Every structure is written in structure tokens, then in C-alpha cells.
Amino acid sequence: MPDFTCVVRRVFLAAMFPFGGLTALAAKGPTDADLARSFEKTVRPFIESYCFSCHGGDKPEAELDLTRFDTLPRVVAGFDRWDLALERLEAAEMPPDKAKKHPTDAQRAAVVSWLQDLRKHEIEKSAGDPGVVLARRLSNAEYNYTIRDLTGVDLQPTKEFPQDPSNTAGFDNSGESLSMSPALLKKYLGAARAVADTMYLKPQGFAFAPYPMLVETDRDKFCVQQIIDFYHRQDIDYADYFQAAWRFKYRGALGVPRATFADIAAAGKVSARYLATVWTMLEKTKEEVGPLVKLQTLWRALPEPAADSDDVRKGCERMRDYVVQFRKKVEPRFLNIAAGGVAPGRQPMLIWKNVQYATHRRTFDRGQLQVEGEPPPVPLDVAHELGAAGEFGPGRTRPVINAPGDPDLTVPAGQRARYEEAFAKFCSVFPDMFYRQERGRNYFDTGRDRGRYLSAGFHNVMGYFRDDQPLYELILDEKQQKELDAMWIEMDFVASTTARMYLQFGSNREALGTAPVAGAEAKEDEPDDKSRTSEPMIRRLEAGFLAMAKGGDPVGVQAIRDYFDWVNATLRRTEKARLDAEPSHLKALQDFAARAYRHPLSRAERNDLLGYYHALREREGMDHESAIRECIVSVLMSPDLCYRIDLAAAGSRTRPLSDIDLASRLSYFLWSSLPDAELLAHAAAGDLHETGVIAAQARRMLKDPRAQALAVEFGGNWLDFRRFEGIGTVDRARFPEFTDDLRAAMFEEPVRFLQDVIQTNRSVLDCLYANDTFVNPVLAKHYGMSVSGAKPGEWTHIMDADRYARGGLLPMAVFLTKNAPGLRTSPVKRGNWVVKNILGERIPPPPPVVPELPKDEAKTDLPLREMLARHRADASCAACHARFDSMGLVFEGFGPVGERRENDLAGRAIDAHAQFPGGREGVGLDGLRQYIRDARQKDFVDNLCRKILVYALGRSPIVSDETLVQEMRGKLAANGYRFDTLVESIVTSPQFLNKRGRDDLTQR
Amino acid sequence: MALPWLESLPFASTASAATADATAGGAATGAAVAYPQRFAVTFMGCGVNPNHWWARGAGAEMELGRSLEPLTALKGKINVINGLFNKSATKQGIHPAQTGNLLTGVPFAKGAIIHSGISMDQVIANHVGQDTVQPSMVLACEQPMTGYHESNFSNAYSSHISWQNADSPVPNEMYPSLAFDSLFENRGSLRNLSVLDRVKDRASALSRKISATDKVKLDEYLGSVRDVEKSIERMRADKDKAEERARGKSRPLIAMKRPDNGLPEDLREHARLMCDLIALGFQTDKTRVASLILARDLSSLYYPFLDVRDAHHSASHNDTSDGYEKIARFHLSQMAYLAEKLDAMPEGDGTVLDHSCVMFMSNMFSGTRHDNSKVPIITAGGLSGTLRTGRVLDFTGKPDEERRLCSLYLGLMDRMGVQLDHFGDADTRLTEL
Fold this sequence. Notes:
The complex is a heterodimer of chains A (1004) and B (433). With 1004 residues, chain A is mainly α. Chain A is 51% helix and 3% strand.
């Protein structure tokens, strides 16, 4: 876009109706017929004579073609253009001086008066008319948010869709601009399949993963990660528990005398259950010998509450360190076992060992006690054990070796029993490990083989093993226990982990050694997986192993029996669970469809969906999971999901929207997504349309994190930064600081700010005048702010941003960068952005030929401001540039990527002084703010009201909106400009609550 | 959507007819590439027998080591390429870390995260596969493994060579019957038709309840649904017609009956069926890209029919044994079978093989030492005259940057019209290719 817009007309979208003019409406005006008659008699001949020669033909001036307004209804339909004409006529700016013919004053007055009458008439007639809100497909953004809320995963299926076009108000959420095409429909189909591919069946219902759940690798990864994430959320540190216990002890002194275990635990983010256990050990348990004596001594040595609490933490950490190092000394160790011909590396033997560890974490190794008078404990003779078996023989198991005379382990003569009891009590509460998250190839050294989450420790064969008994027994509450159990069951259910572990074992002749059941041909015993996992085949393989183990270590023989029993039980349980689960999947499918369609399913819809499922299974022989997936695709492709259609009543009368449709209208306004359960409950109860209910729901929704969509989708389009990620104008060689991270941070700053305005219900004027903003470290650096201690990506609310010449929307880097062409600033673009996006002036397109400014500021002889001043010397340019140049010049203290600067790129000192329209002067951001406060604040408020109204309704503005806008402005002023006032006025308005009848064909 | 290529199958053997038909087929920018180019890769894990994997001389005079004997009939149409290596797969750990990125050239993530890059066969499929029923066939004769190897790399890396993106392998199809169905029954498009049919009904029902203006918007949707439906039906009809016509001219489309359900019990049968399917897919232009894992890394396949007692992986630890030589020769003979089959299909002046490149590779040269400082590669077919054949290329001893596997891929992709500045760890082409 060229910089100089030489024909700028000020369009008072805002002034469609002058302030305070509403009272005049009471007076009885002319009728439709009167107006139509005058149009034919006076107005049409007038424009034919004086306007058509320029505003007609193939290339009408200012893109205004008046010839198409040949009847009264057409004038009404296009009244926003006529409003402009009215203004020009009144000001006698049109026809222009150079025109050949000019009307008389009386002729002019007659047309002006007719237009004024018409406007009054239309506003009066149509007040509250909801207008035509077209059915439309969801925008790409809405589709993404909808899928996120429907699946619980932010899959962003439209990431590679073509960009949605926007309507004249700049928003991409209206039926006027959103269309469908075969090419796009194919993309929807692909997206629906991609989403359905992430579905996985659960024992109850189904859910979605962040990636396709089609291959076993991905299924495994998902199930494992889910459990690991659960473990990591527990984040267990003994020091935290000791510190929480200390807080409980001194709860009075700490000012919370009534605090319970639960309160203290919640505050310290520890388990209340385990806190109580630890408390009992520290305070209520009398012990004369053993580790608890030492621990209690450390406990009692913790200081009382004082200013310096650092000592308490240090003391708690000392206690923790004591527990940890003591536990290491008495950790039970288990050697590998073998049985006859079954070597220690075989699955049954390794599983046996895993079981020993998992079930002995709350015990200790009695062999470690150094009892006076008894012979010193002899570490198992490693060399002696070697040779019992091959590579993974017992020799690889190293027992714990403690120094002789360790005071922790020393026991006076004859007191073994007493000490063992004390050790047992202590170790039962303080396990050697709460859970084991990774396991190497049957090593004990936890420093090796990290990253193999939940691995059973097999060699080259997949297998998982659960080892979290202490966590389960000591830490988790009942709900968490259920959650964890469910995840382990889900692992088999979703990924068939035990079955696959077993199949790899059963088919792997390396594991079988001499292969007791192998025939001559390789695959004779492996007809298919199903029969190999059947109970008879499992028992057959078990018999083969028992034969191999014959005469061997009875523990090993039992391990073989246990292994096959465990495998068989798990497979049978999973098999049964799969069958039992099918009805729950069908139920979940119907719930899914109801949420996707945003209305309860009718009986017909229900039958239709289930009918499709059964047809797929029976007629096409599809398996259960594929059929469910296919049904999900069809739900996602349904117009009930992809489209927003408000069902209209028959007839032409305007009627209230149904509560169900209203719920969607509200949620797509505030969240760009589907309604949640609470909203749907109100819709079902039929009270959503009540003013009190809908207003309360709106307030609740604004506080919800999902309201971020309003900041991004409304804010981003209103302020025109939605596409900032695609900006290509910045010269990264000259501005190496402009990294992808900085660009992302620039985008997020206004989102964070608007989100704060929305969620904490601030004054909308804060957008202009606030002294605060939000930064992450990369943006803080760009702004020269210090956010010491913030992690990368962490956002900080800076309250005194004005110290760095920031605060509010105006000086945000995203706008300054977007409105600069690369190697210089552009006061024209920046000023244009202020008057257009902030103050609501509509700037027409620039004339085709305008002088270009140099591309690189460093290579210019004059400062930009002087070049602009010269341009304004041309009278025809001045009239327009005077309207916005000044509002860009005040930002000259910010360079092309929004960085603060003292000199321009050619080294000349910056001058941020400006003379605003109307003659006021000011310097920099403060000057602009003062000017807006004094002269333009009402323009800002008016513009914001109109923009958000258009966004909320999903259609272009119509005449009937005038009264509502007026009302919104009034309520805002009366309520301290709080954001929720804006939203409340809209959602309780007739426009929002009603829908025109199906047969109303009025063009408005 | 390009015209189905079969329609222009030029069985008349004059050059002019071939050119005319090729133009009608719309597939080409010049006569040299008038026929679609195809690419297939077959893989065996754990290396070959280094003592018997060699070739000398050129063209018909080429001498072949014992393991390469299955290629005797194809001497003029093959290249034996030694000495290339995949740097990203070295010095990470043995087995999985030497395997899954063979076709990606991007280092792996260790531990619980699975990450490499898109594989070159899928890059080609994304580029040339859009015009065919199936962008690529990804097949395997052995079950994948999951979990972790002792080197801490996921066993998924041992089981997959084709990656649709950096994080996910393409699922391997093991069932010949299902691979057949997806080529010929084309279940994907049938399913889409049934979904579209459903939503069409729903939209029609809705449109009776809404206002005239809303109806206009919904009609846009309905119209789009109908359009997509029609285009799918047209594509299916065209394919059927083309097949019918080819059959009507009594040209021998390979007669292949649908394989039985389930997994074949004998590896020999399994491998052969998979090769037949690829040949069929190529001949009928249902797909132009295929990858086939004959034996995965850490393979536990048994070869009683070769009289070898150890399973594949164990046998590879004694890679100079006669037994392992037989295993390597067996797998190479599958590739030779596929290439000969393609060579028996006339196409224009030449054969389908002449317009294709079938590649054989392993993840190591020596399984005993887990040595992948070079990997064995053999290609067959001339990619429509763009790839000279009948050669032995040995890069052993050259500087690392001149013997990158990814440089070979760049050269092959160039010849298939996929021009990339860099792929994996390479930004140059092999000069000798």
C-alpha cells in the first residue's frame, strides 16, 4: 500500500446518528410511502443530475456507485454509504468545486432533509431488528477451538487450511465472508480423519491423544507417558513433608491456629495422607533405638518460627538427606534366579525379580545389621555366584556393601530383635523408593539406562512393569489410586502391552533356547496371534518351560508358574474388558455427537448414528474400533458441527432464538467454541434467555481461560495483528534481534493484555491509558526491562511499564513493527492504524498514483517528518494527511521493530512532536494520549462498541444497531467503562436474543 | 486429478505411439519421462555376509560375489553401490539407532521420545503419490517391536524405515490381503463416499427447516459435498474402465487373486506375495512408491528352509558363516524377483523396471561387529534413462562428505522430479551417480 493517501474522507460511522439526537425520534415522522414519493420526486432526479457523472459508470469515484440506488429499499439497504453522502452534502463538499453543475441551496437542503428524515425513520422502525445473521461454517479458528474442547486436545486441524476471508468490519466470523468449496470440503474430510485417527478406546468410553493412535509405537508411547506424567505430578520430596509437619506444629505461631492437615498439605502441595503418617512418626512415636531416634533429634532441632525461615528449610533438607542415605544402606537386593534350563534372562525370571523389588520397598535388608558378638555380615560372594548362568547370571547383582562400624547399623550384642523392629517400623514409612519410573536391562545401577520408562528390563523385547507400591499405599488418596489403576489397565486395553510382550517372548526362539514346542517348520506354532494368546496355548508353552526347568531351583519353577498365570489372567481380563466396553463406546459416541452438534440428540438422530455403526460392522465387516472411528468422522463432517445455523421459526415475524441456539451464540461469541455443560444445562432448563441468567453466564465465561479466544479472535482482528506471525517486512539482517521468539512474544503481548482486561473486568480505557503491560524475557529484553528470575516463556505483569515508555496497547511493538515497512518507520501507516483501528475513522483506498517514500531511512537526506510536511504542502493531500500523520509522528521515538531510539537510522536526532487535527500539539506517546483524552475518547469508545457488536452478532452493522450502540456507550460511561458492561449490553439486547422469521426477506 | 495413467498404456511398441499416448496421458513434460517413475526400497536388518558381497566389472561382464548371484540375469540393469554411509546412524548405539533413520538421515532422539525426520520414500510419495490410488505402500514381513533397546533407543527405530513425519512412522502393513484391498478395493474412497452420503442426507434434512438465506449457505455445503462425491466416483469409474480396457485388449495385467486372509505361514510365500503386490501396484499405476521390510533389525525370523538353525539376529553375530550368507542371499533374491518381475512388464520401448528404481539395503555391512561405517546398496532400473546402470560404484575410502547416503537420495529424488536443496545430512549430490 502506498504511503500517501491523497483523498481521505472522514467517515463518521460513529456519527451515523449524532449524540443526543435520539429524543427527536419521539416526534411523528413521515411514512414509508411519503419517503418513497420524495425519493422519486426530489432525490433521484437530484443525484442523477449532480452525482452520477462521477459516482457511476465502470469506475465510480471513491468506489461509490450511486446509480444502483434506484428504489427506496435499496437506499435503506446501503445506508452506510448514504450516511457519507449526507455528510458531504451538508458540508457542501460535494459536488466538488470543479464540477460542471451545482445545485441550488434549496435543492441541497431538500435532499439533506430527506436523508435525515429517512435515517430517523429507519432507526425508529427497525430498533431491535436482529437483521439477517447468515448460517455459516465455523471459521478455521472456531473449528480449532471447537475440536480442542470436543476432544480435550489442541489438535489444530485447520493449521494448513487456506486463510479465512474477513467481512468489511475485519472479522472472519460472518456468513457474508465464510464460504464452502469442494476443495475446502476435501480438507475438512482430511481434518476429520486426522482427528478421528487420534481417538483411542478406553474401558469406559473413548478419548483422544495428541497424535494418531494407529501404530503400536504411538499407543505405547501415549499410555506410558500418561503414567509417567502422573508420577511426576506427585513430585515427592521428604523435605517438603518435614516442612509441612513443622508448619502444622507451629500453626498457631504462624497465624493459622485452626489449620488442619488437609489445609497445610494443600498449601504445601503435599499429600495430606502421608503428612499425617509422617507427623505420627515424628511426634507420636516413642523409639529408643534405630534411625527414628536420629530423625526425631533432627526434627526437634528445627528452629521455631522466626523471620529467617531459611534455616527451617535447611533443617528439613538435612532430615531428608539422612533418610535417603540411611535407606540406601539397608536397601533389599535380589539376585537373579534360574531354574534348570531356564536362564535368568528369560521373562519369567526377570519378572520374578521385578516383583521382589516392587513388593519389598517398605522393608530392609536384615543382613546389613552389624550386631556386636555376631560375625560381621559377609557380602554375598560375587565370584562364587558367577558361572551359575550366562550373560545375565546372578553375578551381575551387586549387594549393598557398608563400611564396618557404621553407627547407623551398629547393634549392641543381643539386641538384634529390638533393632530389627525399629528398622522395620521406620522403613515401612520411609520406603527406599516411591515408584520406579525407568529400568535398564536388569541392572541395579539407577544411573544407567535412563529414559526407558516403565520398562520391565528385558533384553531387546518390549515389556512394562508396574512398581509403585509405596506411592500407592502411602501417598495417594482413593481417587488418585483409582486413577492410577485405571491408567495401568488402560495400557493393556489400549496398547495390548502384555499380549505383545508375551507374543514376542513366545515367538522368540532365542528366549526359548532349545525351543521345547518348536516343530520342524518355523512358523508351525504361530498360526496367528489370537490362538497363541489363548489359554490352551499359553498352558502349552508353560508346560514346555516347566519341562525345561525340571529339577531346578523351586523358586524359579514357581516363578514360571506365576508368570504364565499372570499373563493369562491379564489377557483374559483385557479380553473381557474389551467386550464389556463396547456398549460404553456406543454411549460415548452419542454423547460425543450431542456435544459436537451442540444440542441433545433426537431419537431419530440417535438411531441414525447407531444404524450407521451397525451397518459398518455388519454390512462392511468393519471391526469395532474402526467403525467407531468412522462414525466420529461422520459426526465431524456433519453440518451440525461444521455449521452455525440458528433454526428460525416459520413466518416472517421476529422471534426469540431457542435457548439451545442461544447457548451456541453466546459460546461462539465469548469462546469461539462450543457451549460447556453448564451453559447447555441452562439451555435445557429453558432459562438462558432471561436477562439475569444470560448476564451471569456471560460474566462467568469471561473469567474462564477459554475467553482467551476473545482476545485473539476479536482483539486480533479489531487491532489487525491476527496475522502477525506471517509478517515478512522485517529485514532480519539489519534487525537480528527480531527472532521467531520475539515475533511470537510481540504477538502475545496484546493478547495477554486484552485477556487481563477481559478476565479481570478492567476499564476498556486501560487499552489507551494503562501503565502496565505483559512481557516474557525475550520481549523484556527488547523493551529494556528487567525480569530477573523469569524462566524463558514465562510472562510477567509489569505494572510500571511507563518507565520504559510502554503500557496499554498503543506503544506495543507488534503494532509499531507491523506498521513499519522494514528499514524505516512509517508515520503514515502508524497514524492510519491509530485513526482507523483505535478511533474508528474509515480511510478509503489511496489514489492509484502516489509518490513513494525511500525504502531505507538510512539513505535519506531529510527526516521522514520533513518529507511528510512537504507532502502536506500540497493542499489536496493535506486535507487527508493532516488527519493521521501526526498520530504516527508521535511514535518516531520507536524504530522499525518497535525498539526505542534516540536517533533515526541515518543518525539524526528524533523529534516526536506533532500537531494533531484541530490544532492541539503534543509530544510522543503522552502527547497522543492527552489528545485522545481531550478530544477523541468518545471516538474510541464508539468504535469499540461497534466492533465488538459486529463480532458478537456475526454480521455487518445495520441501522437498527444505532440505538444499541448508543445504549452501550451510556452504560459504559455509567459503569466505569468496565469490560463486562460491553458484553452484558450485547447479550441482553434484542439483536442477540432474537432471530428473524424464516420468511422475512427484508434486505437490511 | 490426473487422468488414470492406465488409459494410455501403450502396448504398441512404436516410439510414435508411445509418445502420442504419453501426451494423452498428460503425465509427462517430455518423451524421456513419459511413463511414471516408481521407487521401491527393500530392506533386511543386521547386515550381510561381507565376504560374499562384492561385484567387479561392468554390464554383462560384471562378476558377482556369491550373495549377489540372484542378480545374474539383471547385470546390465543394476548398480552395485558400496561404501556409502549414514553418518546420523553412527556412534549412537547399535541396532535401533542404526536403522530407523536409514531413509531420513536425521539423528534420533534417545529414550522415551521418538523423533527423527520424514523418510525419502515418503518425500517422494508426497510429491508423486497424489495422482495415484495410494501415495505409497509400506509393507513388512515381520511384526514391529516396541519398547526399548538396551542402547536406550526405542525399538520402534528397529521396526520402521518409512516415516510420515519426524515423530511418527508409517504403519507397516503385514497382511498381503489388506495390502491388496487398499490397492484395489480402495477402501479409503469407499469410506469417504459413505461419510459424504450421510452428511448429504443430514444437510438436506436441515435445509428444510431453515430460512431461505440460510439455505443458500447450506446449499454451498451440499454442492461441495456432491462435487467431491462425484470426483471420487469419477476416479473410481475411470480406474475400472481403464482396467477393463487393458483386459479387453487381452494384455496381461498380472493376474493376481486376492491373497488369503491372515498372515502367510511361510516366510518365502509372505515375501513373494509382498513383491507381487508391489509389482502389481507399479504396473497398474495404483502406486508409485513402496517400501518393504523383509526382515527388520533385531529380526527373530527363522530359516528352517535354508537349513539355518539360528534366528536371524543371532545368526548375524556370526556373519561370515555360510548360514548367514544364505540368509542375505535369500533376501536379495526377493529384490531380484521383484526387479525381474517388473522387467517382464513391457512399457513403451522398455519395461516397467526401466522406468523404476528398486533399491535393496541393509542397516550395516557387518552384523558381527555392528559395523555401519558403510552399508550395502543395490539398485535396479534406470528411472526412464536418467540413471545409468550396469555399474559397480565403490565409495570406500573417500572423505565422509563424498559418500553420504543422503547424497544418493538427493540424486534419486532429482531424477524423479523432486528437487531439494538438502536432505538429511546432505546438501550435495553424489558426483559419480
